[in-house]
Design goal:
By secondary structure, the chain is mainly alpha-helical. The chain is about 50% helix and about 5% strand. The longest helix has 21 residues. Bound molecules: (2R)-2,3-dihydroxypropanoic acid.
Length: about 425
């Protein structure tokens, strides 16, 4: 069987009827940015089902506009923290009380461009939901001019050492309700976050519940608040894609002006996460102002957002060249020269498919074809060697954490499809 056929099988096996789970066992629900990447893959063979992936995600949107990080359509005892731990949430379907990187508008724009038979009404409805979600980010999470995050899970990069500053500055709640982790029952504990980190993650959840998931209070009064290059650049890129869709849908000028304001604000905020000492974009604690101190796999997303100065972009490329000398498979999630780099532990080192995908798009759009090709080739080599894993050891190419993983299959399909189209042109 070809890898392309296997990739389609992975997506079919993870289909739960209108939405797709990331992988069985470890992640049994619908995750936000996972579904966005999944839609791209499904679009290569079933456009209606790809749109359904998007609309099913939007079904979970809260009255305040947030699209949550996980939608709990059932209560699976094999996952923790499930709906009971997040408590009463205001959305139409039980969910987490935080969001995830807003890659969806960028994906929807792409779907709308490749779907020549598209149903305009469906696109308009999706647009309105996306617009409300982006407004939510700007209204509920802006701090000192930049959209920041209240929880490492919201960044999608759970245990990246970038969050240590914010986590170390907070205390675990002394009255933290007891719990049993389930993640380590599905996969090797060496792949996953530490126990101390889990206590802090759940302390933030407990705080969110204590303010009835009032999102502005969670931002202003919560125990953790950091700016994140992933969230910042993904949102800035998605705002630009939202603007393009607003123009093509002939939305009122007031809507276009609002999006323009977000984009201008985003570009102005890019400097907030420029770590001068390191010469790289890094996360930053918004309580203390302290920067994290390593080059990660979202530092180079400045190209994807078309943001940052020539000097900042040049220094970013120099870091990439340095990192490439340390690993066999670009792009590791944490600096291989940092003391806390761990090649197999989740966001402390492994290569992540969706990050290679977005970074490669940015590099290619900004004229860095060789670097973009390396990110694509290295991920494809890792998949050919090991299969469709959640992430990969950047030194050996071995698969880590979840197997038969949806976004890895989807990105493979999307690239194969694009390469075929380029070949045919
Ligand atoms: C998990 O359960 O590990 C997730 O990353 C939380 O979103």
């Amino acid at each position: 069987m070809t890898l392309t056929q296997t990739a389609m099988d992975v997506l079919t096996q993870n289909d739960r009827g209108g939405f797709t789970i990331p992988t069985k066992g470890l992640y049994p629900y619908q995750w936000n940015w996972d579904s966005a990447f999944v839609a791209l893959g499904i679009a290569t063979y079933d456009m209606d089902r790809a749109w359904q992936e998007v609309t099913s995600l939007i079904e979970g949107q809260w009255p305040d506009g947030m699209i949550p990080s996980i939608i709990f359509r059932s209560d699976d005892p094999d996952y923790f923290p499930g709906p009971a731990r997040w408590g009463e949430t205001p959305g139409p379907i039980p969910s987490t009380g935080i969001s995830q990187p807003p890659v969806l508008a960028t994906v929807v724009r792409k779907l709308s461009e490749i779907d020549t038979q598209q149903d305009m009404l469906r696109l308009m409805r999706v647009f309105d939901a996306l617009y409300r979600w982006h407004a939510w980010w700007h209204d509920m999470r802006t701090v000192d001019g930049i959209v920041a995050t209240v929880h490492p899970w919201e960044t999608g990069r759970d245990n990246c050492p970038e969050w240590n500053i914010g986590l170390e500055a907070m205390q675990s709640a002394p009255d933290l309700a007891p719990y049993t982790r389930m993640d380590n029952k599905h996969v090797d504990a060496g792949f996953r976050p530490s126990q101390e980190q889990y206590d802090k993650y759940l302390t933030i959840v407990q705080f969110g519940q204590s303010v009835d998931w009032d999102q502005r209070r969670l931002t202003d009064e919560g125990p953790f608040l950091m700016a994140d290059p992933n969230l910042h650049f993904v949102l800035l890129r998605a705002d630009q894609d939202l603007r393009a869709m607003a123009i093509s849908l002939k939305k009122p000028q007031s809507v276009i002006d609002q999006i323009e304001t977000w984009i201008a604000k985003g570009h102005a905020a890019t400097n907030t996460i420029w770590n001068v000492q390191l010469g790289a974009f890094t996360s930053r604690d918004m309580h203390s102002g302290i920067f994290s101190n390593g080059f990660s796999n979202c530092s180079a997303l400045c190209f994807y957002a078309d943001s940052g100065t020539e000097d900042q972009r040049g220094k970013t490329l120099q870091h990439m060249a340095r990192v490439a000398r340390q690993v066999d498979y670009m792009l590791p999630s944490w600096d291989p020269e940092a003391p806390d780099f761990e090649a197999k532990r989740y966001w402390c080192g492994p290569l992540w498919p969706q990050m290679n995908y977005m970074t490669a798009i940015g590099l290619s759009e900004q004229g860095h074809a060789a670097e973009a090709a390396q990110l694509q080739d290295d991920l494809c080599r890792a998949i050919e060697k090991s299969g469709f894993w959640e992430c990969f050891d950047p030194i050996t190419g071995e698969g880590c954490v979840g197997a038969q993983f949806s976004w890895t299959a989807a990105i493979w399909l999307s690239w194969q499809h694009e390469n075929k189209l380029k070949g045919a042109a």
